[in-house]
Design a protein that fits this description.
heterodimer; A: flat; B: about 240 residues; alpha/beta; 6-stranded mixed β-sheet; about 25% strand; binds adenosine-5'-diphosphate; binds magnesium ion
């Protein structure tokens, strides 16, 4: 029997399928959350800059609230706290909800910076051709903003993949929890944790490469 | 009735008082050239005309419609007024062709194929071969970009065209190709308001020259009057500086 700190190659091979399943769960949760986070973030990012008395205040409050509190606490509030208010959510829904709300706040800031990186003349030109504010945003400003912030969004996705490990506290069988369960059964920590780290890297490293690629492409032809 | 009438136009940006009571009228088919020192409010005036900047006070009347009145559909009105900017402001994520077709499709609701035909027609009109249609703005020279911007505005079929120092950001050898397009347009009878430092253009193409300084119209008249015998000392001083 291998000790707690020993690497057991046979065990490693044996647990690979379980860890792979955990990694897929991790990817599922982070992908869903980045999609909802993008929707939430775009809405609140635009709200932060519109000429309006209340919308920017609401958006700012949301961003500050989320950025000022730990994700772990947010996850627990959604899963354990909401039932107190009569809202019972299955852990999967609570998990995606918490992660989406969390990444939405960070993405809102990225989107706001992205919109502000687009020269004001673009909006002027669009409006002067008869587009409404929303058409100008949708067809002219946001596409350019997204191009500029693709690297930042990629980094946000990487962060989300890692942060989703916190979902283990609400019993979602993602990668980290899978590793912990293997440890609980085999009393070998080193082997599953090494496997867990390896799977995280297999997800994040290609994304980092992609981010680098986008970064270089933006540097390549900066628009006037 | 004049196509455009500006009545007692004032514009403030916070404490900054940029336009201080501008009155002017532009007839159909007229080419009005506005000259004056930088910071005098020329760009602001043009942006007030299509309501990109809402006036603080005063009226902008286009073809009998007061654009400053409540309930006016500005998105409709702006289709009737084309504007070309110093910095071109082409949509940098779209090709030359798409720059022109985008507003045609989403504002005028013209189907894709027809919009592309119109775009090609106007690219040709500003002297750009069809091959440039697929170029992105950063692949075009300044002069070419500015001509695409003119084509984009013209494709909306406006009744009034505003030009804001459209050759100021161009290399000297590219200025002529843009001025030629504008001259051609004037010959065809387009109503135009042109802010420029190109005095040759003002003399030859302008029906009337307006000298603006400090947010007011200081002097206006026929090009030969303004250029050969300016009445106001400030006009004289400005002209002596740039001629
Ligand atoms: N959006 C704005 N906000 C604040 N100040 C502005 C704005 N646009 C123009 N100004 C100011 O108004 C003055 C007139 O500018 P402008 O109309 O661009 O003059 P011109 O085109 O004759 O050079 C300048 O002092 C400029 O800084
Ligand atoms: Mg100007």
């Amino acid at each position: 029997m291998a000790g707690i700190g020993q690497f057991d190659f046979n065990l490693f091979i044996k647990i690979l399928p379980d860890l792979a399943r955990g990694a897929i769960v991790t990817l599922k949760f982070s992908s869903l959350s980045i999609i909802f986070g993008l929707i939430i973030g775009t809405i609140f990012g635009v709200c932060r800059i519109v000429k309006n008395l209340i919308l920017p205040k609401i958006a700012t409050a949301y961003v500050e609230l989320i950025r000022g509190t730990p994700l772990l606490v947010q996850i627990m509030i959604v899963y354990y706290g909401l039932p107190a208010a009569g809202i019972n959510l299955p852990p999967e829904v609570a998990g995606v909800l918490a992660l989406s709300i969390n990444s939405g706040a960070y993405i809102a800031e990225i989107i706001r910076a992205g919109i502000q990186s687009v020269p004001k003349g673009q909006m002027d030109a669009a409006r002067s051709l008869g587009m409404t504010y929303f058409q100008a945003m949708r067809y002219v400003v946001l596409p350019q903003a997204f191009r500029n912030i693709l690297p930042a969004l990629g980094n946000e996705f990487i962060a989300l993949i890692k942060d989703s490990s916190l979902l283990s506290v609400i019993a979602i069988a993602e990668l980290t929890r899978t590793g912990m369960q293997i440890y609980a059964v085999t009393f070998n920590a080193w082997t599953p944790l090494l496997g867990v780290a390896m799977f995280y890297l297999m997800m994040t490293l290609p994304l980092s490469k992609l981010v680098d690629h986008f970064q270089r492409r933006i540097g390549g032809h900066e628009s006037p | 009735m004049s196509l455009l009438k500006i009545v007692n136009l004032h514009k403030r940006f916070g404490d900054l008082y940029v336009l201080r009571g501008v009155n002017m009228e532009v007839e159909k088919g007229e080419v009005v050239v506005i000259i004056g020192p930088s910071g005098g409010g020329k760009s602001t005036l043009l942006k007030c005309i299509n309501m990109l900047e809402p006036p603080t006070e005063g009226k902008i009347i286009l073809d009998g419609i007061d654009l400053t009145a409540k309930g006016v559909d500005l998105n409709k009105i702006r289709q009737r007024i084309g504007i070309v900017f110093q910095q071109f402001n082409l949509f940098s994520h779209l090709t030359a062709l798409e720059n022109i077709t985008l507003p045609l499709r989403i504002v005028k609701k013209i189907p894709k194929e027809e919009a592309e035909k119109i775009a090609i027609k106007y690219l040709k009109k500003v002297g750009l071969e069809e091959e440039f249609a697929s170029y992105y703005p950063h692949q075009l020279s300044g002069g070419q970009q500015q001509r695409v911007a003119i084509a984009r505005a013209l494709a909306m079929n406006p009744e009034l065209m505003l030009f804001d120092e459209v050759t100021s950001a161009l290399d000297p050898e590219r200025v002529k190709e843009v001025l030629n397009v504008m001259e051609e347009l004037a010959r065809e009878g387009m109503t135009m308001i042109v802010v420029t430092h190109e005095m040759g253009f003002a003399r030859e193409v302008g029906d009337r020259v307006i000298f603006m300084d400090g947010g007011v119209i200081v002097e206006e008249g026929k090009p030969e009057e303004i250029f050969t015998s300016p009445k106001h000392p400030r006009t004289r001083q400005f002209l002596s500086m740039i001629l």
